[in-house]
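Ticket #4471: complex job returned nothing on first submit. Input attached below:
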Amino acid sequence: MTKTVSLREAWSGEANCLHCALRTSVLFSGLQEADFEHIHEPIDQFALKPGAPLYLAGDTGEYLFTVRTGMLKLVQYLPDGSQRIVRIVRSTDVLGLESLLDDRYQHDAVALHATEVCRFPARLVRELGRVNPALHHELMARWQRALTEADAWLTELSTGSARQRVARLLLRLVRDRETSECPLFSREDMGAMLGVTTETASRTIAEFKRQSLLVETTPNLFLLDIPNLRRLAED
Amino acid sequence: MTKTVSLREAWSGEANCLHCALRTSVLFSGLQEADFEHIHEPIDQFALKPGAPLYLAGDTGEYLFTVRTGMLKLVQYLPDGSQRIVRIVRSTDVLGLESLLDDRYQHDAVALHATEVCRFPARLVRELGRVNPALHHELMARWQRALTEADAWLTELSTGSARQRVARLLLRLVRDRETSECPLFSREDMGAMLGVTTETASRTIAEFKRQSLLVETTPNLFLLDIPNLRRLAED
DNA sequence: CGGCCTCTTGATGTATGTCAAAGGGTGTGG
DNA sequence: CCACACCCTTTGACATACATCAAGAGGCCG
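Support reply: We reran it on our side without changes. The output follows.
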């Protein structure tokens, strides 16, 4: 029953955290050089192709992950088999926090685009967190961020008309980004994020394209008309 | 603009944590007797009437709260003024965790029934958490619990038909309870929890009553037909 | 080239939103 | 103590956004 994901094929080497390009913004940003000497367990990197699962709901969670590049969806299922995407995680985000509590993973984590992640043994993070206040604080901040995201998905992406939801999702994708260009998901995934059907997602996106709220500059790269989308999202 | 709640009238005394009836299940369950001697700041108790706010979104969060009895809703607002209830908290639940990070509160917290809470200065909890691994672990567990709840509200209460959502909400209210009787909320609140209108909530509850899925034993106390509600919730 | 998958679009049905009004309960002031 | 106002629930009539079912178009790969 409990199918487990094999990451063997996705392995792409051991990480060098001390010289990581993302070090100032990731989980370990608060660590000192000396702390890294206490890390004896290997921290591995993995590369995932679109659609590849990182872990599945119910798997024994012995690892946390940091996203280096790319994007993953966190998916939950209802008893009737329908699925709902409850969050997406992107560069510098952490996933698998529940492993710190010996929990099983709560979601399927599946790559949406080509994605690279670093993998940390939960035991290691637990031990470092016990003695290192900065990491401890960083962990709480990560948990709170996930919670804020979860709440926002409920209020922004599961409330209002389909057009409002799509508009809010699009705006969310480019928020805090330097460019207002972004790639889109499959219509099926968009539907699962917004609680609407694939067809409704497709119709809405198609309509936005016709109204030039959305312009495809390169294949699957869309430039957004932010002011008008924002107007749409709010009323 | 930022209206702050005055709890002056709700004050009902200082708590005695060491002899608290809930001590084995609350945030401080991991503390030893000796730890309590380090608590010099007062831990106050408050009693809230239905509809009374405990704090408002945007307030400077300097306190965490534990619910002793009763129930509160956590409410978020959209720019257009519509509101969404993102979670409810009940006996032994913690709210205001964001105050540990110097964040402002993310929601309005409003009593649904008569409610008693204990209030802890965030500074106190931060300090105890730094030196006490048990409390540290308990905090992480609380955060994870809130996150799991948030995800469940999205998948269970914001997905499917109105009847499914109402059924799932009702089942949730009696889960892990000794009795399958429970009080109900106003139809407006139910709507805000499920992402449907007040009228739809009302119609659905009225229909459930007619079908005896819901029997009012005492004013606003309902006995649930759990097996049939469960059947409804799933398909 | 054929098969498969996703996106799009159309036709139709229906659940839910919207607007409106009536009934019942509760509290307040005369 | 009654009368009135107010609020919440319920119900009805109607409108509509979205789901559902179905089919065609375009892209990708074996």
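The mean pLDDT of chain A is 90. Closing as resolved unless it happens again.
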